[in-house]
DNA sequence: GCCGTTTTCGGCCCGACTGTTTTCAGTCG
């Protein structure tokens, strides 16, 4: 029985693939994919909705038919339609469809003509030279299939945004230096600041047809050229990251930027709105008949649609059009709004710098305050502080603050939330601190109900200020622990607690979706670097990115406040 | 299969590149 929205979404995607291979109506196929996306984006459990008897048809892309299918899946754990489809065609065909260059038509042909049912069969057929005999296929296609089968797995992983940045920045500098190049920007999910990036979509505008395409192919990190044309090319960089380059004239720059920034769902909506007004929108501009009415700037494209500029981080079709039409888009928080950092470690636990080094580095960032939040004693592996050591650190910070100018160290702790929801240190010492970050570092495997009650109980303690890395996830390596985050958010609201956006690139926890809910409910956020060395202060901008994707304004974030304002928010 | 200031039918985003063709289908983003 599926437990998560994404399980049901996965089944819908599978139905879409199988229908497509059978040559079903493409719009019907799209309907399943749209519904799958809706389910993945949904911040709460679809199962809860079904059990509460809520109307699923109010969700975008879910009509009467799909609503009843979801109900069947939730109530019986079975999806008869999918089972039926699998009887008609082998389920292994969906993995063949995952091979680059093989879409529904070719997969169907491979199956019908050669009896290829899975990757193994495909490999055999290609090695035997039977693929090239099929009409519509050829020697080259067969070679590509074999190449794909061999190199699979290496380049399919999504990269952390921070990793992608380290590849993108030198490439942008390189392209920027080419004669005739006007602007270079990395669009796609990178520009939307998504936490992971599948590939890099680089957009270049140039005045005249420069030699940018050839120079791109010549870039020293290019390992393989996948495709190359006049205005588009795809390459694989060493390490496996794919880069797609698109070259447009400066007059089309804005339209191309909207188009290549995406998300796909966002740009589809942009074009739809254009169509409703009798306009054709593509990457070259906005056209009324043959006349270009916009396209040089992004602002211009949105303007002809009667919309204000929409920030890239909001372009996920998660309500940005409705908000834009209402003139209710949020004024997103920026890095320069940040006045301090509320989660940081020193040598006292598992950090590598002293109090003074951390303070000086924070001052250099232009921050007014820095909370020192070493671990508490339960986290023995990190040399967590007991009552006595914390008392000593309190005295050290008091002494240091007397010496320091333009920066204030805040006495704090990252105190463990124990299995039963109590905090790892007695209230008597916690009360002597300026604020407390409370985190889960153990017992990730509790049931959803127990985990939720653990967090709620912790928040009942008046010493509780900030919930550190609220779901415990590590992107790509550890799932969030099961917890009813909506209840946690509501409880935080009732108790004046703050939720952290942990800015470590592999955490970014809260994620964008919960961040948006927190802001809607009126729960405040703390964007913190969880620094273990001063070098980690640079992570702040990733936290900002995530907050912006979650529609957060400066008002929503506690560490945009002055020290005085912050202290007020940390008093319950 | 969804959706509706042109509502219960008839629409549903749009263009580039490749490999196969000999004018284009298939795939991709």
Description:
42% of the residues are buried. Helix 1 packs antiparallel against helix 2 (26-41), helix 21 (485-495) runs parallel beside helix 22 (512-521) and helix 22 (512-521) packs across helix 23. Helix 18 links the parallel strand 12 (369-372) and strand 13 (408-411). The chain has 24 helices and 18 strands. With 572 residues, it is of the alpha/beta class. The protein folds into four domains: 5-151, DNA polymerase beta, N-terminal domain-like (DNA polymerase, domain 1), CATH 1.10.150; 159-247, Beta Polymerase, domain 2 (2-Layer Sandwich); 263-325, Beta Polymerase, domain 3 (2-Layer Sandwich), CATH 3.30.210.10; 335-569, Alpha-Beta Barrel (TIM Barrel), CATH 3.20.20.140. A five-stranded mixed β-sheet has the order 2-4-7-6-5, with helices on both faces. Strands 14-15-16-17-18 form a five-stranded parallel β-sheet, covered by helices on one side. A three-stranded antiparallel β-sheet has the order 8-9-10. The mean pLDDT is 91. It binds one DNA strand of 29 nucleotides through residues 25-32, 34-35, 60-66, 100-106, 135-141, 144, 188, 199, 201, 227-234, 244, 246, 259-260, 262, 264, 267-272, 274-275, 280-284. Its EC number is 2.7.7.7, 4.2.99.18.
């Amino acid at each position: 029985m599926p437990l998560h929205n994404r399980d049901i979404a996965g089944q819908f995607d599978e139905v879409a693939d199988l229908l497509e291979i059978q040559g079903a109506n493409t719009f019907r196929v799209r309907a399943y994919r749209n519904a799958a996306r809706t389910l993945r984006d949904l911040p709460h459990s679809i199962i809860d909705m079904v059990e509460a008897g809520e109307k699923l048809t109010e969700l975008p892309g879910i009509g009467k038919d799909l609503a009843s299918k979801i109900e069947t899946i939730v109530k019986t754990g079975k999806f008869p339609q999918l089972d039926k489809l699998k009887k008609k065609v082998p389920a292994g065909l969906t993995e063949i469809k995952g091979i680059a260059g093989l879409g529904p038509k070719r997969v169907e042909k491979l199956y019908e003509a050669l009896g290829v049912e899975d990757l193994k069969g495909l490999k055999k057929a290609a090695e035997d030279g039977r693929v090239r005999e099929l009409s519509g296929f050829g020697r080259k296609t067969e070679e590509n299939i074999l190449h794909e089968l061999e190199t699979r797995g290496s380049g399919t992983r999504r990269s952390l945004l921070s990793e992608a940045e380290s590849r993108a920045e030198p490439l942008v500098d390189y392209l920027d230096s080419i004669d005739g190049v006007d602007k270079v920007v990395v669009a796609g999910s990178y520009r939307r600041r998504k936490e992971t990036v599948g590939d890099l979509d680089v957009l270049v505008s140039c005045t005249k047809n420069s030699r940018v395409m050839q120079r791109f192919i010549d870039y020293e990190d290019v390992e393989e050229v996948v495709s190359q044309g006049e205005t588009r090319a795809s390459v694989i960089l060493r390490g496996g990251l794919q880069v797609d380059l698109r070259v447009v004239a400066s007059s089309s720059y804005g339209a191309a930027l909207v188009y290549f920034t995406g998300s796909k769902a966002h740009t589809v909506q942009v074009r739809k709105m254009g169509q409703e007004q009798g306009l054709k929108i593509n990457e070259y501009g906005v056209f009324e008949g043959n006349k270009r009415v916009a396209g040089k700037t992004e602002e211009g494209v949105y303007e002809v649609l009667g919309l204000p500029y929409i920030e890239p981080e909001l372009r996920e079709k998660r309500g940005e059009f409705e908000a834009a039409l209402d003139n209710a888009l949020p004024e997103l928080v920026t890095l320069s709004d940040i006045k301090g950092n509320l989660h940081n470690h020193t040598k006292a636990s598992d950090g590598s710098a002293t109090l003074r080094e951390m303070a000086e580095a924070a001052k250099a960032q232009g921050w007014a305050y820095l909370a020192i939040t070493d671990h508490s004693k339960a986290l023995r592996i990190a040399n967590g502080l007991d009552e006595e050591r914390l008392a000593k650190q309190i005295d050290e910070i008091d002494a240091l603050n007397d010496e320091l100018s333009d920066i204030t160290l805040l006495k704090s702790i990252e105190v463990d939330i124990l299995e039963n929801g109590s905090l790892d240190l007695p209230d008597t010492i916690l009360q002597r601190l300026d604020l407390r970050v409370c985190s889960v570092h153990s017992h990730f495997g509790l049931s959803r109900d127990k985990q939720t009650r653990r967090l709620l109980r912790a928040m009942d303690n008046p010493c509780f200020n900030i919930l550190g890395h609220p779901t415990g996830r590590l992107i790509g390596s550890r799932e969030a622990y099961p917890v009813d985050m909506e209840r946690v958010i509501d409880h935080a609201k009732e108790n004046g607690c703050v939720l952290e956006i942990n800015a470590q690139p592999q955490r970014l926890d809260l994620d964008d979706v919960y961040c948006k809910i927190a802001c809607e409910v009126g729960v405040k956020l703390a964007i913190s670097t969880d620094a273990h060395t001063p070098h980690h202060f640079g992570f702040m901008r990733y936290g900002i990115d995530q907050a912006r994707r979650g529609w957060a304004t400066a008002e929503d974030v506690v560490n945009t406040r002055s020290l005085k304002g912050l202290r007020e928010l940390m008093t319950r």
